[in-house]
Amino acid sequence: MTFKKNLKDSLRIAQKDLLEFSRSKMRIATFVLMPVILIALFGFMFPGSGQISHIPIALVDEAPTGEGSYIATAFERLSSTSGSLNVITFSSVAQAKQAVIRGEVYGVFIVYPNFPARDSLVLIVDNTNPQVAAELEASVGSILSSLVGSNPSPLYVESIAPWAPSSEFEYMAPGFVGLTVVMAGMAGLAATVAREREIGTMDGLMVAPIARSSIITGKAVAQMVRGLLQAAIIVVMVVAFFGVKVYGNPLLIIAVLILGDLGFVGLGIIATSVASDQETATMMLMLLEFPMMFLSGVLYPVIQLPWWLQYVAKVIPLTYMVEALRRLMILNAGLGAIMGPLLFMLVFAVIAIGIAVPIFSRAVTR
Amino acid sequence: MIRVEDGSIVVKDLTKIFQGGFAAVDHVSFEIKDGELFGLLGPNGAGKSTTMRMLTTLLRPTEGDAFIGGHSIKDEPDKVRLLIGLVSDKLIVYDRLTARENLRFFGHLYGLGGEKLEERIDELLDEVDLSRFADRAVGTFSTGMKQRLNLVRALLHNPKVLFLDEPTLGLDPQTVRFIKDLIVQLHQSDITMVLTTHEMALAEELSERLAIIDHGKILAIGEPKRLEEENGVKNLEDLFLKLTGRQLRDTLGKEKSAPRVIRG
């Protein structure tokens, strides 16, 4: 065997593989779309410094009279003029903090009556989102320096979380937990169904006196269990090796993972039913997974995206799952604080499964 | 008159038209008696596998219907599934499970369980000489061993009708003989069997009656010997070639010709 012959044979195999690939329209479509979507996303996702604008912030004025009384009004006016902050007024600090936990605002700015004493202006930031917290701190600092000067600064910054995440990774950890479960549910299910169809064992399930929905439900449950076990491994690792602290009710976290995963299981079933083989199904799902990973707040805060991509992020169910997990795991939020995301995930799951099961039944008997 | 829940099969105008308008099975009608061993023969792409898949409820007919033990494959597929077993060249066994685990899993799907199921598994494994390998992963089995396991998997729930789709494809002569003997033995226990195969000798030896199907239509149906006599040929292979032609069928695609129907 000469080197030349080996090279020639390798080229022949490569040529055959490419020829095979070129015969599937669906694969070509996903193959072209993938880099187009990815590069467009990255291009739009990395805006220049200071481009995060209109960050929602709560304002609590505890000094309606006295020396600091003008601060709150001026802060609101300057925020609106600069466009950097969206100020929402709250009557108590407790209410404002709840709004942070619910994800409605990214921080709370409090004006105390002892102004201009040190620590009379307090900014509580949502430190589960370090990038946004830093941007918020800079914006508030800039507005205040134009109001009261910077020396000595009366602004005291504290975190809403019971602990202060020290790195970006800690922000990402809950997102990775969610992403792992979703990937297992969606891609894992598509792979196992396509495999059983290709090797023929699916026929054995289909001729058995069981409902079609039982087949797909059973497979989804197996994938979910696998996903949850992988999520548990991630949680153990980030806690044991990377110093991440995880709060929240474990049962509630599992419930969010299962509910969030259901809809994606539905998407996995739809892709498997539509695709002719395992490879095409996998490619179709990757086309969904990659944009989701970058747009849903797993890696970067949604508010960092351009406004139109923020709207896209808002229809991606993973965004809600990640948001709920982050609030549960970092902020120790209760059920009430994640009702909104839960409701969205439930609606998505009902619609996706509702479409997927009949499509699957038709696909396997067409 | 059909006796409910026996192993009879009545096929009425069964039709399957795939996307693009190709009629793989075109208004086919025939009957198979309870306990009969019926051969369904045809060249590649003739429509026999599509017919089998419709009869086993794996494919929904476009038109027509079929009744197994009196139950419609369209309207009562769950009742039909309880009555049938399927053995095909695609082995319905999981490589990573042991032989016993495979049978236990499929047994559970048919509502079997407990001691009764374990006894049935032991009995069936013994029947196909796999008792020694009961707790070995099926992935370590030879193709012949897998097909033997596949066969008993289909018999777990004592089906009234057994569909055998190319059950001897790719097997060594010893396994073919073993499976042939098992089919004969099952036939004696009055299970209705529908056999598709390209092995004419096997079909001729085993089938009480058979149908030759091509272009989605039945060209001939009856007892093998009688069909051969009527057509003046000396064996089933000659009959098959006389009716379906000698052209290499795989290269002809979906071309249609007007078939001549013979009833024997």
Give the strand order, joined by hyphens, for the main sheet of chain A.
Answer: 2-1-3-4-5
Beta fraction of chain A? 5-15%
- CATH homologous superfamily label of chain B: P-loop containing nucleotide triphosphate hydrolases
Percent helix range of chain A: 55-70%
Tally of extended strands of chain B?
A: 11
Number of domains of chain B: 1
What structural category do the secondary elements of chain A indicate?
A: alpha/beta
Q: What CATH architecture of chain B do you see?
A: 3-Layer(aba) Sandwich
Q: Report mean pLDDT of chain B, rounded to a whole number.
A: 89
What is the arithmetic mean of pLDDT of chain A?
83
CATH class of chain B: Alpha Beta
Please state the overall shape of chain B, judged from the principal axes of the Cα atoms. Answer: globular
Low-confidence stretches of chain A: none
Which structural category fits the helices and strands of chain B? alpha/beta
Supply Rg of chain B.
19 Å
| Tally of individual helices of chain A | 13
The most extensive interface between chains reads: A-B, 14 and 23 residues
Brief digest:
The complex is a heterodimer of chains A (366) and B (264). Chain A is an alpha/beta fold.
Question: Could you characterize the architecture of this molecule?
Answer:
The complex is a heterodimer of chains A (366) and B (264). Chain A has 366 residues and is an alpha/beta fold. Chain A has two domains: 55-159, 3-Layer(aba) Sandwich (D-Maltodextrin-Binding Protein, domain 2); 168-364, no CATH class. Helix content of chain A is 66%, strand content 8%. Chain A has helices at residues 3-22, 25-45, 69-82, 93-101, 130-148, 168-199, 201-206, 212-242, 250-274, 278-295, 307-314, 317-329, 339-364, and strands spanning 55-61, 85-90, 107-111, 121-125, 155-159. A five-stranded mixed sheet of chain A has the order 2-1-3-4-5, with helices on both faces. In chain A, helix 6 crosses helix 9 and helix 9 packs parallel to helix 13 (339-364). The model of chain A has no long low-confidence stretch (mean pLDDT 83). Chain B is α/β, with parallel strands linked by helices and 264 residues long. Chain B has a single domain (9-89, 160-263), classed as Rossmann fold. In chain B, 35% of the residues lie in helices and 23% in strands. Chain B has helices spanning 48-55, 77-83, 99-109, 114-127, 143-155, 173-188, 200-206, 224-231, 236-244; strands at residues 9-17, 23-32, 37-41, 63-68, 71-72, 84-88, 161-165, 192-196, 209-214, 217-222, 262-263. In chain B, the strands form two sheets. Chain B has a seven-stranded mixed sheet, with helices on both faces. In chain B, a hairpin with a 2-residue loop joins strand 9 (209-214) and strand 10 (217-222). Classes of the chains: A alpha/beta (366), B alpha/beta (264). The A-B interface holds A 199-201, 203-210, 364-366 and B 56-60, 78-79, 81-82, 84-86, 88, 90-94, 106, 109-111, 153.
